[in-house]
Amino acid sequence: MRRVRHLRRPRLATTGIAATAAALLAATLTPTAGAADRPTRSTAIARAAEVLRDRATSLGLTAAQGTTVRDVIVDADGAQHVRYDRTYRGLPVLGGDFVVHLAPGGAFRGADRASTRALDLPGVTPTVKAPRAADLAAAALRAANVGETLRGLTSEPRLVVDALHGTPRLAWRTESLAQDEAGNPVARTVLTDATTGRQIDAWDVLESAAGDGESLYGGTVPLETTASGSTFQLKDPTRGGTYTGDAANRTDLCLLGICVRRAPATLFTDADNHWGTGTAADRASAAVDAQYGTDTTWDYYKDVHGRNGIAGDGRGSYNRVHYGNGYNNAFWDDSCFCMTYGDGDGNLLGPLVSLDVAGHEMTHGVTSATADLTYSGEPGGLNEATSDIFGTLVEFHAENAADPGDWLVGEKIVRPGFGKPALRFMDRPSKDGSSADCWSPAVRNLDVHYSSGVANHFAYLLAEGSGTRTIGGVAHSGTTCDGSTVTGIGKEKLGAIWYRALTVYMTSSTDYAGARTATLNAARDLYGAGSTEHSAVAAAWNAVSVAAT
């Protein structure tokens, strides 16, 4: 499951018998600011701007650099966290992002920076010209798809400053896109040194995860729809206007948000507001799953974390189902703010519209709007793990008897030809044959879908602890890399800690050592330094071989 990458704080609530992350934050960060005293987003931005002026040197900012606000978090006690992107002489800086932390009164508390290296390039005129960068990226896409005849291959280079891979340098970030022999999209981002022409890095661009409806995987599910004359539209006015359409088995041909052809999303309509039949023979059945997944993911983030929509701005996304022909993938696309689902080939995978897949893919949108973890190396593994973690927590939150929560990913969509009962196994990731249970230096060279195993393993141990147990009707076995015994603190606290770490402390370059620090900071904020929860985070990271540095 992959993501296309071109490129807030509402009510407090509780769910079940456990306090939500938003409520826990209000209860533990003291003193609590009154509604009239709590800083607004605009106030936080203005205060942070003063910090940038006063502390430019210590933050590595110079007259050649520009900053733009990406996200703002205001805690219940009034503390503020303002996240920035940077430019250098007008060029985007990969790894230039940073977060400024302010006390409730506006005093500077600290900053987290994706890179601390000085930005001071001799010039921004590339030796390697754009057409050469485009050719190199096209060759890289062909090399990554050996044996495939690619059609309509297009490469768009964009000049950037790369601060993610050592000393900052001028580079071309080139997005290459084509169609394979079945007409499905393949894409790759290639980072090329603009002086030498050497490839710096490369990664996949497509990240791979009051009516009612009969879904393929979740049984009969409730749906909020829109009446339109004598028919109903599969469009939810209560969740930002989210809707689901039929892609008619077509695919996109887009690059950097510019589409030569965009697969349609023809809105589903129905006469009686009872959608689908629960079988793939009815095209509306997959649409039911997709809309239900969008609704449930929206509800999870709002009910549990106080986040109003994927981008935190109340805006609804949309879904396209029946994309491509036998397409074994689903992906989130920032450029259209939409989810896209293939039907699967029927042998390895069925339609990829299960609840945990929806939660996984839409979480890529949340990550993009917050830490924007680079989809390569250890940050890429953490990006994928973040989607696995929250996709799993969405499934638990739904409390759907037809699809009970467990720590498997994609168990509903696999078919006999796949040879395994799920795509991934969070209790012991290596059960998929490729993922890492424990951190080692080799992890950073793995595909991000496999390096994610370390964080998935951590998340399971933090929530459930080590040992064997049955969850959602599935036998789980939480092993540890150091032979230790870990006591879990529950799913709700895992979600609270990871969400705060993602939205407040992680940056685009966060690696596993940085994730340990970020989650310990989050646990400290939520529960106190030296608390049971704080100690459990350290123990769970130790158990997957991510030790204190």
In short:
With 549 residues, the protein is α+β, with helices and mostly antiparallel strands.
Describe the structure.
Strand 25 and strand 26 (about 340) form a beta hairpin. Residues about 1-35 have low confidence and may be disordered. The chain is globular and about 65 Å long. The chain has eleven helices and 30 strands. The strands form eight sheets. Strands 4, 5, 6, 7, 8, 9, 10, 11 and 12 form a nine-stranded mixed beta sheet that branches. The relative contact order is 0.11. With about 550 residues, the chain is of the alpha+beta class.
Please write out the topology.
Elements (H helix, E strand, L loop, with lengths): L1 E3 L9 E2 L2 E2 L1 H8 L12 H14 L10 E10 L5 E9 L2 E4 L3 E5 L5 E6 L16 H15 L6 E12 L6 E11 L5 E9 L5 E6 L6 E4 L5 E4 L2 E3 L2 E3 L1 E2 L5 E5 L6 E3 L2 E4 L4 E2 L1 E2 L3 E2 L7 H23 L12 E6 L6 E4 L4 E5 L12 H15 L7 H22 L9 E2 L14 E2 L22 H4 L1 H12 L2 E5 L2 E5 L12 H15 L6 H16 L4 H12 L6
Parallel strand pairs: 1-25, 6-9, 13-23, 18-24, 24-26
Antiparallel strand pairs: 2-3, 4-5, 5-6, 5-7, 7-8, 9-10, 10-11, 11-12, 13-14, 15-16, 16-22, 17-18, 18-21, 19-20, 25-26, 27-28, 29-30
Helix pairs in contact: 4-5, 4-6, 5-6, 6-8, 6-9, 8-9, 8-11, 9-10, 10-11
